[in-house]
Amino acid sequence: GFIAYFQAYTNTYAPLSYLRELFTEAITHPDIVALSVATRPDCLGEDVLSLLEELNNQKPVWVELGLQTIHPETARFIRRGFDYSCYERAVLSLKEHHLSVITHLILGLPHETTDMMLESVCAISKLPLDGVKLQLLHVLKDTDLADYYQTGNFPVLSQDEYADLVIDCLERLPQNVVIHRLTGDGPRNLLIAPEWSIHKKQVLNRIWHRLKERDTYQGRLT
């Protein structure tokens, strides 16, 4: 079967009648085994939560929240638009409605240290999450971030640094949390940095080999 994935933009920011029509059409298709809805924590009103809970009685519904970081200074820099407490409330509300919750984190955001990134992982590990997506920061053409990067304001992670950081993150997450993503690859025609991220299979292989080198993580490889 297939997962109906509403990924781009904020997929609960619309009239309820429109969302009901859209999600119902997707979830009732015989080849669809689950519905995944990506959105913002500040776009989950009680009416939307009730609709998602209703659909969850038909087939599994996953809600993906783009947190990216727990640090307010970074959140302001990337113009996220909501604070960490808003995210926490959204997670708890989703769980009260018996919905699966997946959180997105970006690794390598400007001016974040390794300790800061791991603090984000440790913070979300205390919440009742079902899954996590780890995403490498991509610098893309024609963005404010590209202008900031090209003036030398921050470095990007090397492949080895990223592989080690991913494993550090995994070791801090509870065993019951499903890892939905370990990295990502930006559009080749837009990507400025890091160039090594284009070769996604190489990145995943590097993470795998680094995992096998860490005895403390062997149990989770199975």
Task: Describe the overall structure.
With 222 residues, the protein is of the alpha/beta class. Helices cover 40% and strands 20% of the residues. α5 links the parallel β4 and β5. It is globular, with a radius of gyration of 18 Å. 29% of the residues are buried. The model has no long low-confidence stretch (mean pLDDT 95).
Spell out the key features of this protein.
six-stranded parallel β-sheet; single chain; two-stranded antiparallel ribbon; alpha/beta; 222 residues; 8 strands
Give a brief rundown of this model.
The protein is of the alpha/beta class. It has helices at residues 16-27, 46-56, 72-77, 84-96, 114-124, 144-150, 159-172, 200-213; strands at 2-6, 32-39, 61-68, 100-107, 131-136, 139-140, 178-181, 191-193. The protein starts with a strand and ends in a 9-residue tail after the last helix.
Written as H for each helix and E for each strand, in order along the chain, the element string is EHEHEHHEHEEHHEEH
- Helix/strand structural class: alpha/beta
State the shape: globular
Average pLDDT number: 95
Radius of gyration: 18 Å
Instruction: Please describe the biggest sheet, giving its number of strands, its sense, and whether it closes into a barrel.
Output: 6 strands, parallel
What is the strand arrangement across the widest sheet? 1-2-3-4-5-7
Proportion in helices: 25-40%
Low-confidence regions: none
- Cα(first) to Cα(last) distance is 24 Å
Sheet-strand content, in percent, reads: 15-25%
Tell how many strands the DSSP assignment holds: 8
